[in-house]
Amino acid sequence: MTKIFIDGSQGTTGLKIYERLENRSDIELLKINSDRRKDADERARLINESDITFLCLPDAASIEAVSLVKNDSVKIIDTSTAHRTNADWAYGFAELDSSFRDKIKSSNRIAVPGCYASGFNSIVYPLVKHGVIAADYPLTCYAVSGYTGAGKKGIAQYEDEGRDCELDSPRQYALTQEHKHLKEMKAISGLTRVPFFAPHICDYPQGMVVSIPLFTDMLNKKMTKADLQKLFAEHYDGEPFVKVRDLGYSESMIGANNFAGRDDMEIEVNGNDERILITSRFDNLGKGASGAAIQCMNIALGVDETTGLRIEN
Fold first, then answer.
1. Rounded Cα–Cα distance for residues 238 and 234 (Å)
2. What is the C-alpha to C-alpha distance for residues 36 and 43, in angstroms, rounded to an integer?
């Protein structure tokens, strides 16, 4: 069996990875005693005894954990932002291009994408790759997410009975336009201009919608929404984790929590002849975090990518 260690198993992402692995017969989970979770020597021992270690830690702690690796055969799957734009690491979104999947298969260092970045890149990477928009297109990204993306402290704040009434409404943040996902959003999609990003945290647990609006007169080529739907359908053809919906799939509204508990995502194209809206909908803890991490592990192990994960039609 494959030996797996989760460094940071008590955080939201670590707990969700554990849930997806605990009943798998091909996995042996290496566990650390609760009183030694911050013991560098004990963590180093478990990391180097594992075949794969998941890092579910803050950036600085993830960098430190990588420095503890002495066994050259250990694969590290890092869920932090620390290594997502490091060229020596595989970026864990296999569906973007065959080169991404090939690197995940061959690398011992894999960086799991950020949740917002997953939605953004699922849309923008194909647009740039296929020449629909220029690399300096002035992109705007509007997104809403459930509060579980805020980590333990944020979750506790939202689930506190005496919470501030402001939490009843969506709250826009990253007001300085310095959100930590912007770096990978720009780098992975090959942009030369940093996009404008307006994320919102909302009063529901899981799920997110990431939206990219386009003006058709600013595209590199004349394209209708039908043309764009076809482009995305062909780009993600055969990919079980990314569904490209037919035009008109959502009649009037797109809910953000419909994919809660799932590990796949869906892309829709809506709008009119002048303004087109492309959306990516998924679970911020699924394809946006723990589910993506397990998918990367499955690819690295050479097993069916969907093993232990929940996908639907």
1. 9
2. 8
**Cα torsion 217, 132, 186, 15: sign:** positive
CA-CA distance, 216 to 132, in Å (whole number)? Answer: 10
Q: Three-class SS of residue 160?
A: coil
208-215: strand order across its sheet: 171-172, 196-202, 140-146, 208-215, 275-282, 265-271, 242-244
User: What confidence tens digit (pLDDT) does each residue in 148-183 have?
Assistant: 999 888 999 999 999 999 999 999 999 999 999 999
Task: Concatenate the DSSP letters of all residues of 60-86 into one string.
Answer: HHHHHHHHT---TT-EEEE-SSTTTT-
User: Is residue 174 classed as helix, strand or coil in its secondary structure?
Assistant: coil
CB 104 within 8 A of CB 300: yes
Tokens encoding 229:
């739907």
Q: What are 221-274's pLDDT values in tens digits?
A: 999 999 999 999 999 999 999 999 999 999 899 999 999 999 999 999 999 999
Among residues 56, 115, 141, 296, the one annotated as catalytic is: 115
- Is-catalytic flag, 115? yes
Question: Residue 244's closest CA among 228, 263, 255, 229?
Answer: 229
Structure tokens, 231: 């482009």
At 28 the three-state DSSP class reads strand
pLDDT single digits (tens) 74-130: 999 999 999 999 999 999 999 999 999 999 999 999 999 999 999 999 999 999 999
Q: For residue 214, give both structure tokens.
A: 């386009």
Tell how far CA 12 is from the center of its chain: 14
Specify the amino acid at residue 280: S
- What six digits make up the tokens of 255? 């809910």
